[in-house]
Amino acid sequence: MNKIARQIVRFRVPILIISFILLIPAAVGYFGTRINYDILYYLPDDIETMEGQDILLDEFGKGAYALVIVEGMTDAQVSSLKGELEEVEHVDSILWFDSIADSSIPQEILPDSYYEMFHNGDATLMAMFFDTSTSDEKTMDAIEEIRAIAGEQCFLSSMSAIVTDTRDLVNEELPMYVLVAVLLSCLVLALTMNSWLIPVLFMLNIGMAIIYNLGTNIIQGEISFITMALAAVLQLGVTMDYSIFLWNSYQEQRGICDNKEDGMVNAITMTISSVTGSSLTTIAGFVALCFMTFTLGLDLGVVMAKGVFLGVISCVTILPALILISDKALQKTAHRPVTLNAEKISCWIIRHNRPIAVTLLLLWILAIYGYQHMNVYYNLDSSLPDYLPSIQANTELSAHFDMSTVHLVLADSNLSGKDAHIMLQEMNDVDGVQFALGMDALIGYQIPKEFLPDELTEILESDDWQLMLISSEYAVASDEVNAQVEELAAILKKYDSTGMLIGEAPCTKDLIEITDKDFRTVSMVSIGAIFIIILLVLRSVSLPVLLVIIIELAIYINMSLAYFTGTTLPFIASIVIGTIQLGSTVDYAILMTNRYQRERKAGLDKKEAASISLSSSMPSIITSALGFFAATIGVGIYSDVDLIGSLCMLMARGAIISMFVVLLLLPSVFLLCDGLIQKTSWNKR
Question: Which residues have C-beta within 8 Å of that of residue 30, sequence separation ≥ 6?
């Protein structure tokens, strides 16, 4: 390590030059990486709802679909508008009243309810299909063109419209995420570090690592908007510790060594040795996300694990070069940092260790209750502000037609007209179903299909499949719609064992079931991986158990606050936050535990060792936690996308909670479990 460090110091100028040159291909990679704004896209390909989406696109040439609500237009005007919208590129077809009620079908044979399906007062409803998928850029471009043509009298309710609005909002807010995180982090570092310039060097170093990380995402082809929005902020917060450790080590060695170069060599060597275990635990936490069946976890896990690795590399190569080149400026901008009386606080915590431990254990009981009873949401539109066009369209759909979503039924084209008619009648009687629409429901199975307009048959039938639409008044992801989906699927399977029920609500139901299993898997993998890493780093059997329990307590407290404050969290929070908080804040515990072991080996009794480990670790832990808090809290407050804002608020709150739990509880654990720790540690002597 010393030889490597010496070469880094020797070639610091070439390292900086190469580092800046590498930003060019990284920027190219960043702009060449596609961003996916559709959460349901990350469901497994082999489940029926996703297979049905592929069939819909392959067999019918239809991918995305939408419900168009038009207000204040006559039938003639609506028909004219329909013709204009059908000319929009990638609009495959539009199903409306005139799709069947033309001159070829006598009006008297049409069911009375047919007209009512498409009309209510001055509002008219059309079903629109696209020949591209939900989150395809072409679909989003088509939606923007449709909105421009239709004007304020037209509302477009669809998953693609939500995806479009999410894209626009995230792209608008993303620069502010980075700016707010950087400014607040610089403020914290400027106050807690001993130089006004060092935060700038930290941000430059971490910023370059973030650009490298985002640029190399082109290897994956695309990443989710959640990963894109969180990657920079998370990488900033998680890897800031390494920069702080290098700077503190350099300051210490600078006073010991003859020159700054030797001081930096020693600092790099110490940093590499010290951050290996801590970075591995953080990487392990992110890698655990890759075991999710819901592949959004894989997307976020790969990007963030890569980001932590690049953060470590840049910390021991780019940052030393920046510090050495800016040495004189750093000395000129030195100042006295804002500090706490760590020794006084440490003595108070050690003196009251038993009451603190009892209090936190009682708090855990409340935290477990709150954690088990917190509410989560799964539908994406719940995370978006009300002023967006897609959310307004959903409101209009519910107000005028008492509808919240539409299910699609794919049935075998050989299913007899009689069975199809009876099946749709049964579906129509299911609670919450507004109408069940298919060719046989429209005109009755006695009418030969040859008499139907070509426009209608092209929309609703292919060589192997026939398409039906089921309107539901229940909101996506609600218990009512999930029960409805189960009942509709059972009816479908009774008449057609190969039939499929697809759409946003069935996909979201799968999402709920899959992520529930994923949560248990990710928790077990992350805890297991971090347990093994701590076991190897600390050479103790008991310490990994104790440290993981302490961090799990912090996680439970963090998540339970959502219940006690009446906050509904996005479904991904319980999976992602637990892993991130476990992987990133266990560093605090490892830092203090290393010092405790060192003092015990030096011959100090447990009380002295606990006091010294606490007082010496406290400044670093507080600086690190405040840095993570600063990097995430601003985004949490600023973002109008609740999915992003909630995750950042949880991470910010989790950093502070973990800081307090480690500082207050870990010394008590040292004192109460010292005998166990010494007996189960290989390096106790």
Answer: 211, 214, 215, 217, 218
Question: How far is it, in rounded angstroms, from Cα 567 to Cα 374?
Answer: 8
Q: What is the pLDDT of residues 551-581, one digit of tens each?
A: 889 999 999 999 999 989 888 887 788 878 8
The strand pair at 405-412 and 465-472 is best described as antiparallel
- List Cβ neighbours of 652 (8 Å cut-off, separation of 6 or more): 628, 629, 632, 633, 636
d(C-alpha 596, C-alpha 304), whole Å: 30
pTM of this structure: 0.85
> If DSSP codes are grouped into helix, strand and coil, which group holds residue 540?
strand
At 501-540, the pLDDT tens digits run: 998 899 999 998 898 888 888 888 888 888 888 888 888 8
Confidence of residue 444 (pLDDT cuts 50, 70, 90): low
Q: Tell me how far apart the alpha carbons of residues 388 and 393 are, in angstroms, rounded to a whole number.
A: 9
Q: How confident is the model at residue 20 (pLDDT cuts 50, 70, 90)?
A: very high
In the numeric block, which tokens belong to residue 226?
């959640």
Tokens of 147: 């909105």
Q: Which of 169, 161, 156, 171 is nearest to 140 (CA)?
A: 161
Which one-letter DSSP state was computed for residue 142? H
**Secondary element (H or E) of residue 23:** helix 12-32
Angle between helices 159-192 and 389-401 (to 10 degrees): 140
Return the closest-CA partner of residue 304 out of 221, 230, 206.
230
3-state SS of the chain: helix, strand, coil percent to 5?
70, 10, 20
Tokens representing 128 are 């629109």
Q: Tell me, what DSSP letter sits at residue 541?
A: S
Where on the phi/psi map is residue 171: left (φ > 0), alpha (ψ -120 to 50), or beta?
Answer: alpha
pLDDT band at 34 (very low <50, low <70, confident <90, very high): very high
Print burial letters for 373-410: b (CB count within 10 Å at least 16), e (below 16). ebebbbbbbbbbeeebbbbbbbebbeebbebbbbbbbb
Q: Say what angle helices 573-601 and 606-638 make with each other, to 10 degrees.
A: 150
Q: What are the C-alpha distances in Å from 480 to residues 403, 471, 486?
A: 13, 14, 10
